[in-house]
Design a protein that fits this description.
The complex is a heterodimer of chains A (181) and B (150). Chain A is α+β, with helices and mostly antiparallel strands. Helices cover 17% and strands 46% of the residues of chain A. In chain A, strand 2 and strand 3 form a beta hairpin. Chain A is elongated and about 65 Å long. Chain B folds into two domains: 32 residues; 112 residues, Nucleic acid-binding proteins (OB fold (Dihydrolipoamide Acetyltransferase, E2P)), CATH 2.40.50. In chain B, strand 3 and strand 4 form a beta hairpin. Chain B is elongated, with a radius of gyration of 23 Å. The termini of chain B are far apart. The chains are: A alpha+beta (181), B alpha/beta (150).
Chain lengths: 181, 150
């Protein structure tokens, strides 16, 4: 009887722990470095891993650099090349952060909440802190997040003639959206 | 030494030809698009579970082998996941939790929507990479520009 009770408590406890961590393997990140003179440098990655801990407010994203899909083969090759993302050596982007003002968000009540997330973005092993506005929508068991921010390519050691010539934006826009369950 | 009219004409014509050729190359590169994966021949045909195990055994070798290749993967769909306005399809190794995930090419999103969990299918896509996820603690293998392999 005692053993059954302990097992029951353990099951309830682990179920609670699992419930507070929402994940997805299909978050979407759009990268837009297009400029007035070149519309091509933009891509989307639809297989990004995302996680949100509703208890602690911890937010995580992980993306395979090579899964950013461009429409143009040459631009995609440039993006992955050694001078740019060097995706053979640095195959992942990652972000780990925390929701600010977590108490304002009621994950048990449907609605749209606007807040900010602060964390570290790691690209090519370079870690930079970022803070970005984020919209969190609670709809039953599903939590949708969306955010948009810019990065400075030079901060991650990405420079070159196309950037200087204005064909690639110095500060591309990164848009993130995820439906976490 | 004065350059004759004829030489000037030749130089101007050569310059024009070079400019046209350069413009043509630029136009080709700027307007080039990835072809329809559905019409491409797969470099490899593999079974999902064995494919996943190949990455778990030796990730580096597997990534090298399939780099930039079109791979057709067959298996039973474990999950169809919403990805913004489209859907992704997954084959999962239930023992390890490792998975293969396919993002579909725009013209093939409609056929992806028709798929459901449990369907036996073959999906062809452009291999991206197989990596270890620190978040999930499993291997994830990603494909872009995928299509049903009919």
């Amino acid at each position: 009887m005692k053993r059954t009770f302990i097992l029951f408590v353990a099951l309830v406890f682990s179920a609670t722990l699992l419930a507070q961590k929402k994940t997805t393997t299909s978050a979407v990140i759009a990268f837009d470095a297009s400029t007035a003179i070149d519309e091509l440098p933009k891509a989307v990655n639809k297989t990004v891993i995302g996680a949100l801990d509703t208890k602690t407010g911890k937010v995580q994203f992980e993306a395979a650099v090579k899964n950013f899909a461009f429409t143009n083969p040459s631009i995609q090759n440039h993006f992955n090349s050694a001078k740019w993302m060097n995706s053979d050596e640095f195959p992942k982007f990652s972000f780990t952060g925390t929701i600010n003002e977590l108490k304002k968000i009621r994950f048990t009540k449907d609605g749209e909440y606007k807040t900010t997330v602060t964390g570290d973005l790691i690209i090519k092993d370079v870690t930079k802190p970022i803070t970005t506005p984020v919209t969190i929508t609670v709809n039953g068991n599903e939590i949708t997040t969306s955010a948009s921010f810019t990065i400075r390519l030079a901060d991650y050691g990405i420079t070159g003639v196309p950037i200087d010539a204005g064909k690639v934006a110095k500060e591309p826009t990164i848009s993130v959206s995820a439906s976490l369950k | 030494m004065a350059i004759s009219k004829k030489t000037w004409r030749r130089l101007a014509f050569s310059g024009l030809l070079l400019a046209l050729a350069g413009g043509g190359v630029y136009w080709y590169v700027a307007t080039e698009k990835f072809s329809d994966t559905g019409k491409r021949k797969a470099h490899y045909n593999v079974q999902a579970q064995e494919f996943i195990r190949e990455f778990e055994r030796d990730n580096e070798s597997a990534n090298f082998k399939y780099a930039d290749k079109i791979v057709a993967v067959s298996g039973r769909i474990a999950e169809v996941e919403q990805a913004d306005t489209s859907v992704n399809v997954k084959f999962i190794d239930s023992a390890s939790g490792s998975y293969v995930i396919f993002a579909f090419q725009d013209q093939h999103i409609a056929e992806a929507r028709s798929l459901k969990e449990g369907d036996e299918v073959s999906i062809k896509g452009s291999f991206s990479s197989g990596l270890f996820s620190e978040i999930l603690g499993t291997t994830f293998i990603t494909f872009k520009r995928s299509a049903l392999n009919k």
